[in-house]
Amino acid sequence: MSLPVPGLLRRGAAPLLLVLLATLSSIAADTQPPLEYRVKAAFLFNFARFVEWPEEPAASAPQPLTICVIGEDPFGEALDQLVQGEVVGARRIAVQRHPTPPQSHCDVAYIAKQPRENPDRR
User: pTM of the prediction?
Assistant: First the structure.
């Protein structure tokens, strides 16, 4: 006994596929950070590009130029995607995230706004 499923799938697949693609694209759009943070990510990257950084000693391998996000990360993947594969001079760019101020070196730091512990105190 043969069921007419293949014909039904062919006729119903295109609208179903369109609905699925529209849903996935709206989910992807919702996961991007707001425009404000995409612009700030571009600013951090361009700031790193336009600073005259000291030369690395010739004997050492170039260390990555580190952009640190300190506190809650509002950028999501936007900052990582923006700097992926980019270099400043001979230094590649690396993004680090720290919940508190790091003990390690940061070349550029974005410090996220933190809520006050006591909002009545100024």
Answer: 0.66
